[in-house]
Structures
1.
Amino acid sequence: MRFKSLLFAPFLMLFVLFSCAEESKEDKKNKVEKQSVEKSNADEEATTQQELVKTAHSSTHLIKFKVEQPVDDFLVKFNELMNANPGMLVTNTFDHQENAKSSHLTMDFSTFHHLYTNQLVNPLVAENPLTALDLPMRIHFYEEDGEDLVQFIDGNYLIKRYNLSSSTETASSNSRVLNSITQSLSNNEAFTSADLNFKKFEGIDIYQSTLNFNQTAKSILGNIKKKSDVSLLAAHDFQSFAEDAGFEMGKCILLLFGNPKVGTSLMKEKPSLGIDLPLKLLIYEDGDGSTKVASNDMNFIFGLHGYQNRELAEQMNQLAKSLITGN
């Protein structure tokens, strides 16, 4: 996927340094242990709830707008507005349609931006690093069944999924800002609102690493490099961005990776999935200094979009696990 990244370059340099360093015996392979995530109810009830999400609801974490103009023209107007607002940075642009062409495939228009502002991102990651799985802010421009659409993540989804308390106003502001911008440019009201029918921390797999942060990052990047059908597409160093703004934050890096053929096939079946692709691995230091790696359970992500493909979801989950463990 084509992308423009302000955060990728420094991390790429970090990867080069890792790769050039002599590898010690103990960090040749990352030994990890999958951890359970706190849930408010029993596992059985949470599983039942997840099945309800997967079968009865569509895009439960999204706010959607119809635009009365070609969505690619709307994107041009949106970019002009972003260029006039130095406080909001477009850190990555993923052009799914162009990426499909690079693999000799076709699909309808589909592009999303990562939007970064220190005020609307740093407090969330500082309270709970897991929120970085859904950050920076994302806005997706796409076509589906002949309609031109714009969608973004509801801030209330962040509050509920990550059990936020001290940064709830910041999370709500994320979607309010995007709602205001989209409404002003489209002259329309949102036609779909989020339906938050899930449990806190649902759909998150967390692994405890036996290595330190740098060794864990090196191990995962090396495992991605070994996969001929998987590419590293971008990386977000949240700590670096926060420190540049004078904000204290622990180490936290989000890796985005994928296979264009698999992603294109998925988005042709369910175009709204374009906002949740490519796949992600979050490497972060916990409050006790230990290193953890988190990923989305794709069964949960598919369910949010009203899409079911358990076999493919499990294949994607296993890919993420193999990149973490090296197995």
2.
Amino acid sequence: MNTKTTMKPTIVSHVTSQSAKTRPGLKLRKNGSKNTYDGGVVVLITLVVFLASLVDHAPASIKNMPAPIKTLIVDGQNNHKWAETTPVLKTMMEACGRFKVDVSTCPAKDKAMSGYLPDFTPYDLVVVNDGYNAAPWPRQTQIAFEKFVSAGGGVVIYHAADNAWPKWKAYNEMIAIGGWGGRNEKSGPYLYMDKDGKVIRDASKGKGGGHGSQTEFEITVREPDHPITRGLPKTFLHGPDEMYAFLRGPARHVTILATAHSAKNNGGTGHEEPMLMTIKYGKGRIFHTVLGHAVPHIKKDSFRITYLRGAEWAATQKVTISVPKGFPNQPPQKK
């Protein structure tokens, strides 16, 4: 005959024999060299019920708060000061409460890249802060990144990241347009808008990439109903900053969210140049911002808010980060 033995759980207690005697309901018994008490079970159950009640009665804003977006910033080779901008981007993203950020820095220019094999799979979003003349990633890493994006991963192309890797076909499809690194008409058409807001893909011969001196400029929202730009004013000031122009590339599956007028008297084109864009690559979403040359520029609300909203959209296809009152809270630059 099988006899079942019911074992009572034993809870280790730091209560001494003397203190147990003074507390009703605690039956002290010996368990080896340690004192235990049956009342500990009651205490444990009570604690569990209490903690559960905290969850049940928590404000909806806390209970429904989405999980942080797992983000990886990749950097290490850039003619811009990536070692200064990456920490600011990381702090900015984590401070808003929507992102948890790691950083992967590739070897220096004079070091072998063969061992640079970051794992993209744990992440929802990758921010690229490599730039002009960056050494190519190992093919294994390129393939892993392509799979990450095409399977639905989000990407932010930040400023000079559109200078990088002109010979990597898939990457150039992800960024839609870029500059420098030998880019020209063979890289794809020069993408811009005319004065009436019509998108132009100019396949004529010409360079890829250029900008005048840093200046303050007005950004015009072209897609006011997109989640990233919804709630932004029709026009807003940014800068002083570099205004990229003459950007070329495959220019497929791209939506221009906002532009700025590139003035000819500042080495510009006379056209409305893309400042904020989205691109589709497979199931993935890319947010491309040409703004933010250095730390002073990325601390401005005109960059910070558009960057954070673009990053959230790239990772989730939704935007919960609000546009602050008075955006961009930037007085006009004194002439």
3.
Amino acid sequence: MNAFFQLLLNPAIISLLAGIVIGLSSRHSLPRLLVNTLSGYLIFTIGFKGGACLGVANECTPPLLMLTAIGALIGFIQPFIHYFILKKTTSLDQQTAAVVASEYGSISIITFITAVTFLTERAVSYDTFMSATAGIMEIPALFSGLWLIKQGQKTAKTSLLESLFDICSAILFCRQISFIFLGFVAGYLSNVFELSFMNQWVVWPFTIVLVLFMVDIGIKIAKQREAVHHFSAALLAFALYMPLINGCLGILIAHQIVDSVGTLVLFGVLLASASYIAVPAIMRAQAPDAKEAVYLPLSLGVTLPFNILIGIPLYYYVSSFLLS
């Protein structure tokens, strides 16, 4: 319970709650250009931190590489499992189910950042290579989700090679994904050429930018409240039980490989979170018939606040119990 109340004092969470109040009481929102700049910076910085860890002997260790590989594999498999569950338990159409399945197989950068902040404030150590893991784990579910969509759209004239080319093109030309790749390269080069000033220049505004971005997230959550009322009980349940299952599974897997409470928490958070930035950005063009009024509020209005307010403290207690 102490962890929960401490999380509520986190500046990012205060900003999130403030944004929700603003969204409920007015129609004002931050300018779109500013929001895109803030999100681009945050995604770039995560990639930068991950790239800076590559090649560092005490950070890029075999157990962490194994954990990252397992995370990427799970991220690739998850959308197929999620899609099966959604088609069996809900009335979602093929494209919408595929997008939702992909969202819950990918990761939420904001949830990851909030978990890192939570651990830092509690002085809980974690492997910094998890930033690289986060960047890598965002990608596999995109392939799976796009594959599910392409299978639904497939015609007699569409070959396997054409489908794969379309999938790769959609991912490579996504602005959010390109920011992660650019961040990886910049972080790696700063480490190779020992450009410490670059690290300081990139990272120092992080907290300020995060606070502003969380205000916008709170406003968006508030504006999605009407859509949530139209969700079926099965779909709402999916948005709550799937993060818990995936998060606890991630903690149990990480427990077999590493012995850091912070790293267990972060791996659990990565598997538990749902993308509302990269996946919707790609799927909006690739699955035009998918219902954005369903897949965006589900991840943004239900799973994101659930993971931030309840999931992170819960994953912390589970991890602490396993390593106690």
4.
Amino acid sequence: MVNGKKRNAPVGQKSYLATEMAGWAACSSRPLRQTSKRLVLRLKYCMPRTAENVLQELQQGRYAPVYFLQGEEPFYIDLLAGYIEKNALSEADKGFNQVICYGKDMPMGTLMNHARRFPMMANRQVVIVKEAQEIPDLAREEAQKLLENYVTHPLSSTILVLCHKYRCLDGRRPLAKALDQHGVLVESKKIYDNQVPEWVATYCRGRGFKVSNKATVMLAEFVGNDLNRLAGEIDKLLLNLPEGAEITGDTVQQYVGISKEYNVFELQKALIGRDVVKANQIIRYFEANPKDNPVIPIIALLFAFFCKVLVAYQIPDKSDKNLASVLKVPPFFVRDYVQSLKAYSLEKVIHIIHYLKEADLKSKGIDCGSATDGQILKELVFKILH
């Protein structure tokens, strides 16, 4: 309250206070000691921001002095660093005021010299450190103290970006807390396999294209949760489509390198229908084209499918809606699992999972003798169908 008027909190503070109030409300029924312990733990650890929120700020032209981008998923780290590299400076200013280096070549002292340098005939400079996890002395106390001091008192004319991939700082350390309090600390987490179809749909919509459910699942199962590769495959596909077109399953098969008749999805369909002739035709095609059809991903996809069949056996309510919810699959794929329940007994499904485990070990050189990938797949399919 100021001069009888209500004073609003800043935007960042407001969201933090709202979060804390929600936390108090959620735990109000708990004992006071348990509640206070929970809040103390939350204050003890840093709270990284999401890549999506930071990207929105960058698109609005709001730049912070320090960005520390960390985590197991490199896609968002590259996305944010790439946006800053492309947009923070004009082309005329980049020649003298943009430094892009790699961590292994940049001890902390040298990095701080770059960060504390003033821009030349420009309002600001950009320093981007790629592979920052490889900074030679980053694990040392002295180097972390140097960076902590800079983060606490940064040079306002410098945008310092550290791309710390595949790992995270210890949130209890002073450096992580300083980055969280005075800079922008982003944690880029790997998404789960069941979240990939939705990510594909969101990515395509963001590019101005529609996408069918079948296409999202095909891309997710064919590529996996490697977002960099997934985005690359989608971008390649979109180059061949008119603006605003819909991506269908046929489009994916045509442009992503999935054979329409001989691919892992058709193999799975043949196994579900116990079609021996079709399954062996596909296996022979895989054997003749090993580079386009590596055995390990094929086994992994079949393993994931039959594991869900095993889960389906244990679900009392086998209605389509409930199976889709529990198995976390689109409703139109439920019929594959229903058909598999009819085609394979519970005992057989357990044996199939064991066969897949054996094949996976053989594909990685364990107890395989001189068997080729094609022979491993032939043996696997024979065991599943007989």
